[in-house]
Amino acid sequence: MKSGLVKKVIFIIGVSGCGKSSVGKLLADEIAIPFIDADDHHPLSNIEKMSNGIPLNDSDRMPWLDDLNEIALKHLDTGCVIACSALKEKYRARLNKSSQPNFAWVYLKGDYELIFDRMSKRKGHFMDAEMLKSQFETLEEPENAIVIDIADSLELITKRIKSQLKISHKMKSEIGVIGMGVMGKSLSRNLAGRGHRLAIYNRHVDGKEENIAVDFKDAFSELDQALPFDDLKAFVQSIERPRKIILMVNAGPAVDAVLNDLSEVLLAGDIVIDGGNSHFEETKRRIDEMKKKGLFFIGTGVSGGEEGALKGPSIMPSGDKEAYSKVQKYLESIAAKDSDQRPCCTYVGSEGSGHFVKMIHNGIEYAEMQLLAECYSILKTQNHSNDEIADVFESWMSDLGSYLLGISVDILRKKEGDEYVLDKILDKAGNKGTGKWATGSIADSGAPSTMIPAALFARYLSFFKEKREAASKVFPTKHDHSEQISISILKEAYQFSRIVNHHQGFSIIERVSNQNGWNVDLSEIARIWTEGCIIKSDFMKELVEYLKTDSSLLVNEQLIPIIKKTHSAAQTIAMECIRREIHVPCLLEAVNFYHGIKTAHSSANLIQAQRDYFGAHTYKKKNDPSGNSYHTIW
Ligand code: NAP
Q1: Shortest-distance atom of ligand 1 to CA 434
Q2: Which tens digits make up the pLDDT trace of 202-255?
Q3: CATH topology for the 175-351 domain
Q4: Into which CATH architecture does domain 9-164 fall?
Q5: Is 202 in the pocket of ligand 1 (CB under 6 A)?
């Protein structure tokens, strides 16, 4: 037998009151396989008979035994313990119709007096002496079973069963993963590959989702020792306490649905880690709800996509710090490692701060992607081929290197036959909602982080393909190719815009962290974003140091000269794009924000006056330390 796997179906048999269920449950728990009580699987007709005090006959029993046989066969891969009286040889034969060698029989033997005495002492339990007698009369003692004397303690009984069945002490799983989708699979392989004893689970939906975890386990050698389940209770029971369970299911109602089911089987102190892209406010609610049940909930941002999850993602956990300390070693072991070999995983703060930070990560990602798309768009209007644009981007890698720039080079070069794949892709950008959430949070918090919304709305605009095509005919674009846009100027404009994007991204984190008392360490966030995530870049590595002293990147001494130097390039490109009618919302927003943030005397006085004029909203006066509000009869 492979260590850590008990591929046996163990039937615990004997008369009523011999302790089948108690022994079965303890045994199943100790060897971390599911427990099944045969009495829970009677057909309705049997239940009705029994509740009317009518004894079951053999023809009542046979369909029930057939069902149990099927249940047993379904558990051949994981093993299970089934408590079933199975008093007659023909019942046992029916339970093992196909003579499975992996079916084992344990007969709990005790004499009438002992069982009657025990049953009579059980609180609230009435044992009919005649019924027990009839059970003994029906009983045909099995010949091929391990016989265990029930006079001993439960612990000793299970020890004897394990020893006689040659079951070495089965270690429970250390951690479990729920949801064998794209991310759950990769995270599971990552965890198992690092030597963690793992349980994996995917829901069972008849005819649609069957044996997902078992099939997945069979496909990858690193999952050799993993225990696969499609039964939630058995999955939970196979994990050592306090249980640590990672949820990798779709954000939203699916998380609540799984938590609901989990709450039924988890015990106080168990920890659930939501690794999906949940909204941070939902995470806060779930933390509170789970706490009321004595359970811990850790909201965890996981970045890096499928490959990151497999090879090492960037991980952003938050919630109860003590609960985090119990899962820290697992999350750190699977995380990407930074240049000092430290894990790209850090405790972000309380509540849903981890998911908030992950959401802003995605927002920064939106704007970084949009900026590259805008550079691509500018170069395309200059009639550069995809390969030439790839060459340009590749040449930027030496000093502006990033994961997104690197993959864009690959994408631009990729061909199927003679055709570029990129040229065949419909220009409608999708989104899964984190950009929308980030934009909402930016608005809620009052932060002027304008590039994320600009990138989001650029995606939305892209979706109106038919309208764009129609408008392009009515208002033809006047591209002016008389002068080439300088690639070195474009590069500087790109660099400038990225600085503004990162400045805005970290500013919103700082602002919301302050508003919620999360105390998020910005430098540490930059550090865990240096590897394993989509926005990893050489610039991010520099930010780790800069953010130690300056939470605002626009006042950082190393960045000030670069901002000053690249600003005029960004201005030039912005002007050229407006003149040439090239849609570059993020680039323009970077320049515009920069102009706004360094405008000491803005036009907001007129806005205040207008508000006061039509709504008596009042205004404050310049050079008035009293801070009083004034109203004018206009
Ligand atoms: P996925 O491939 O669609 O897998 C979703 C998983 O959730 C499946 O195993 C699915 O089970 C399960 N599920 C859905 N509804 C369920 C329910 N009501 N009860 C039980 N299980 C349910 O999604 P994914 O890409 O792995 O993403 C999982 C989470 O990670 C999402 O929140 C996503 O936003 C986040 N994320 C994804 C990426 C990425 O690059 N893909 C990156 C970072 C974060 P069935 O197969 O039975 O339907």
Answers
A1: 34
A2: 999 888 888 899 999 999 999 988 999 999 999 999 999 999 999 999 999 999
A3: Rossmann fold (3.40.50)
A4: 3-Layer(aba) Sandwich (3.40)
A5: yes
